[in-house]
Every structure is written in C-alpha cells, then in structure tokens.
Design a protein that fits this description.
This protein is α/β, with parallel strands linked by helices. The protein is built from 24 helices and 20 strands. Helix 3 runs parallel beside helix 5, helix 3 packs across helix 17 and helix 15 crosses helix 16.
Length: about 575
C-alpha cells in the first residue's frame, strides 16, 4: 500500500506534471518525502510560497497544462494566496496542495490554525478539505479536472496526518479534453447583419485570440477593420498584422484609443479590457467570449456570441459581405504610424539620463526570437507594452489582470524551470524586485539562468504618476535602493550596473550573453512620465493641482526635474 502523498505524487506524474513549487514544512513532510523518492516529479524549492504560486501560474500560462504548488499549514499556505489569485484571474490551471494542522486539533485554536477552505474560496474554482485518506483519489481527480476544464485554481486542503496515511488505490491519469464551442445560428445571423450594415468596424482583440491569428486576420480583411489589442492580447495579435493599430487602455496608444472611439460597430474578440471609459459610448457592440458570464461586464453588449474565437469567426465569415471601402482602416493605420513614430523617437539615448524607453528598446532588439518577457506590474509593464516586439514565437507573461507587484522574477522561475534552454527575461521594477528579493537565491539554488533587468528609478514610479494625475504631492514612494548588481553578485548571480546611456548597449549585450543567471541594474530617469493615450480634463486638473501643491510644500525643484525629463515628450 502507498501513502496518500505517494498516490498524489504518482497521479500527478502519470498525468504529465513534471514539478511542484513550494517551501517545506512539518505538515507537508509526507508530501515532500514522496517527492524526494519519486524518479520523475521534481521539487522547485523557493524562498517564499507566494513565489511558488506565481511560478506555477507562469508555467501553466506557458504550457497550457496543469502546474502545481504546495505550502505547509497556516502561514505557509496563506502565503500562496496572492500568486493563486493571479493564476485564477489569468485563467490558467493550477493545483495547490494546502497542508493543514493535525485533524484531531481542527477547531481548537491550535498552533498555526486557520480555515483554508474558506480563505482560498475566492481565488479558486474548487476548494475542498480532505478529511480521510479514502477521499483523496476521487477529490484529487475532481480537483485536477476542475482546474483543467475551468482554467483556474483548485485547492486541496489536507492535514499532515492524512497525507501520511495508508491508501489502497491506483494512480490515475487526468488530462484536459479540448472542445469546440460555437454560438447559436440565430446569434451568428444577428451579428452578421450588424457587421454587414455599417461602414466603420473596429476589432478589439484580447488573450482569447490565442491560436486564432489566421482567423483574426481573415475577418479583419473582410470587414476592412483596424485591430486594437488589449495587453494580454499583444503576444497573439501584434505580429505580422497590418491591421494592428496598437493597444488601448491606460497603457495604450492614442491610435488604439481613436480607433475604438470612432467605431460604428465594435467587434470584441476574446477580450476583457476592464476600463469602461475606453469603450465607445454609441457603437453597436458584438462580443465573442467562450465564457458567457463575461459578456457585457465592461460595456453594454448588443449581440452576445458565446463561443471560441476561432470557431466563431469560421462560422461568421460565410455570412459576411466583404467591404469595398477601406477608408476607416486607412485612417486608423495612418494614425497608428504617426503614434508609433512618436513613441519610437522617445526611445533613443540622451546625455542627461537613461530613459526607460531606451533600455526597453535595447533589450527588445538584443533578445532572442523566442524570448519570454515577464514585466513587473508598474512602469515596466508600460514600457513592455509599448516597446517589446512580438513575432509569434516570443511570449509576454505577467500579472496583467490581478496586477500584483513582485511577479516578474517569481514568474520567471516557473517559465525557466519549464524550459532551461529558453531565454527568459524578467523586467523587474526596483520595488517589485525588493519585495521578494529572496527569489534571486531561488535562481541560483535551482540553477535557473533567468536574466533580470532592474528599472532602478528609486521610486514606486507608476504610483507616483497616479498621485500626480489625482493632484497629490508624491509621498511614501521614494525607495532607498542598494546597488542591486552587488546584491546579485553576493548570491551568485552575474551583476552589472549601468548609470550612463553610453554604457548601456555593451552592458545589454554582456548581460544577455552570460551563461547563467544575470542581473542588469540600470539607473533610469525617476521623473519619466508614461503618458496615457487620452488625457481627461479631470487628470489635467489633477496634474495642475499637484504642481501647485508641490510648490506650496517647498518641493518646486521636483517640477523643474519633471520638465527636464519630459520636454521631448511634450514638444
């Protein structure tokens, strides 16, 4: 007979799982011991359980398969929550093993006692407490299927005594089964009529277009429609696409914003852009999503189509009449060319400082054709959205829906563990890196050759921008940073620090060529403004109020620095 832990490990391995991310603890001992003796299923030891969950989230995003993390009882498994929220909101399949206190002590206020099944409920599609050994085979099977089929997080809460109990059960093989979902014929007819009877169609494409690139271009050609992409759609939409007019949303381009606002009919394909102010107010909206419950959450929808993007486009195309006028498309692509030119002009070297646009452009140009980029939430996401070039082989993964700091290096662990020969580049903010700084040690301990770029502006830069736009004087956002290159060297990572733009190209080349983990610490302009695609009157008013308050508080020199840093953007 095997133990419960051994049955779990064998089932995971037989089902194609190759590793588990986590941190050991006494309540988890039976599980980690089962991993120790297993010939195929590996253990990736991290320094914080939050990183374990982030790593699992990124692995699942890379492979589409089930990824697994584990935490010991109480604080150990509670640390998983933030990364699991990211996996749940990114819709990737993750199984979490949350160890629990001894079964006989539940409800007594025992050391480290929590109620995990209640705490994990909001960040999972399935959470269950396994109270007996003979429950495990069936609940494990259910949990794995729930995670795979619903594309989310499943959590099994198991006491340490149950994990080491004997179990007479054979391991099972649990795999996902792809399916095709096509909207009803009547809804397809309604959508075709709306698209055929208008002259200006704009497409908003998101992560749901993954695997549907050819179909996306085919419908854009038929409709002569510009394609705006949401951030999570960038890697699937942007490449080899002469219909693309850039991104919209807070991180987007003026051209993407304009194409949305001037649409007579908006066709939303697998996108969930969360900002209502970036949707047109008077357009007919046709939305395609495989999750019917998502339709209409962001803006009122006239024609909902519940289905996969690829198969829905295939069903729609025979019903559509090819448009003969390309006026709307031509206008928007010309606007995009102008917008792109202005953005590219900001990405050059200057003598005064290193602008983050320039750093990102150099990384983009020097990176491998199949590199995986992982930007931290904050300003690195902004520069990644605007200056990284996708080509159908590169990947862009981040905490784009949950929006957590400290995701870049943590998620890079999961991506690099999945493919140790692929170039993996974490675009880390200084605040995000410092938040889970110990994960640099995870890279060396697990011999993961992740390349970490640090946008070192000694501030919570994006928070400062939000404060300015709202009229607040910056407060509590300054960061007193160490020399991150020296920190990296201290933990066994090749470190390079750059403070001058003229030294940056050679440093980027050395950094990416290094055989093993490397960290490039770049001192970038603190006062860089990442301008949104459309500045509202309220934001302009807030910025003016910020300027007045800053002067009145005796910090007028900040306004001078701000002007010096951004004159090239404003004129």
């Amino acid at each position: 007979m095997a133990t419960v832990s051994e049955n779990i490990v064998e089932t995971l391995s037989e089902s194609g799982v190759e590793r588990v991310y986590g941190l050991p603890g006494d309540s988890l001992n039976a599980f980690t011991d089962a991993l120790r003796t297993h010939p195929r299923l590996g253990w990736v030891h991290v320094r914080h359980e939050e990183a374990a969950a982030f790593a699992a989230s990124a692995e699942a995003a890379m492979t589409g398969g089930l990824a697994v993390c584990a935490g010991s009882c109480g604080p150990g498994n509670l640390h998983l929550i933030n990364g699991l929220f990211d996996a749940q909101r990114s819709r990737v399949p993750v199984l979490a093993i949350a160890a629990h206190i001894p079964s006989s002590e539940i409800g007594t206020g025992y050391f480290q006692e929590t109620h995990p099944q209640d705490l994990f409920r909001e960040c999972s599609v399935y959470v269950e407490h396994v109270t007996r050994a003979d429950q495990m085979p069936r609940l494990l099977r259910i949990a794995m299927r729930e995670a795979l089929e619903k594309r989310g997080v499943a959590v099994l809460v198991v006491s340490g005594d149950v994990l080491q109990a004997q179990l007479d059960a054979e391991p099972e093989v649990i795999t996902a089964h792809p399916s095709r979902v096509i909207p009803a014929e009547s809804q397809l007819d309604f959508a075709a009529e709306a698209l055929n009877t208008c002259s200006r169609v704009t497409i908003l494409a998101g992560a749901g277009t993954a695997g549907a690139h050819a179909e996306l271009l085919a419908i854009a050609e038929t409709l002569q429609a510009p394609i705006v992409h949401a951030l999570r759609g960038k890697e699937h939409v942007e490449y080899d696409n002469h219909f693309d007019v850039g991104m919209t949303g807070l991180l987007g381009f003026a051209s993407g914003y304009r194409a949305m606002m001037e649409a007579e009919t908006l066709l939303v394909l697998g996108a969930d852009l969360p900002y209502p102010q970036f949707y047109p107010g008077d357009a007919t909206v046709v939305q395609v999503d495989i999750r019917g419950e998502q339709i209409g959450r962001r803006t009122p929808v006239d024609i909902p189509l519940v289905g996969g993007v690829s198969e829905t486009i295939e069903a729609l195309l025979p019903r559509l009449t090819a448009k003969t006028s390309s006026k709307h498309l031509d206008t928007m692509t010309k606007h995009y060319a102008k917008t792109r030119k202005k953005l590219d002009e900001l990405a050059g070297p200057t003598k005064r400082t290193i602008h983050p646009q320039y750093l990102t452009r150099l990384i983009d140009e020097a990176a491998a054709d199949d590199a995986v980029f992982l930007p931290d939430v904050g300003s690195p996401v902004m520069w990644a959205a605007r200056y990284l070039t996708m080509n159908g082989r590169r990947r862009l993964i981040g905490s784009f829906t949950h929006g957590s700091m400290a995701n870049a290096v943590s998620q890079a662990i999961g991506v690099q563990a999945t493919d140790r020969d692929r170039q993996v580049i974490a675009l880390a903010g200084d605040g995000g890196l410092a938040m889970l700084l110990g994960e640099l040690i995870t890279l060396t301990q697990n011999e993961l050759p992740v390349k970490t770029v640090v946008y070192n502006n000694s501030s919570l830069n994006f928070v400062e921008l939000e404060m300015k736009a709202a009229g607040y004087v910056n407060f509590g956002t300054d960061l007193k940073n160490p020399d991150f290159a020296r920190v990296a060297e201290a933990v066994g990572i090749h470190g390079i620090r750059v403070e001058s733009a003229q030294d940056l190209p050679a440093a980027v080349e050395e950094f990416l060529a290094h055989d093993g983990p490397a960290l490039l610490d770049v001192v970038t302009e603190q006062q860089e403004l990442s301008m949104p695609p459309s500045v509202t009157a309220e934001q302009a008013k807030g910025f003016a109020l910020y300027a007045i308050r800053t002067v009145m508080s005796g910090r007028g020199d900040e306004l001078i620095d701000l002007a010096k840093a951004n004159l090239r953007q404003l004129f």
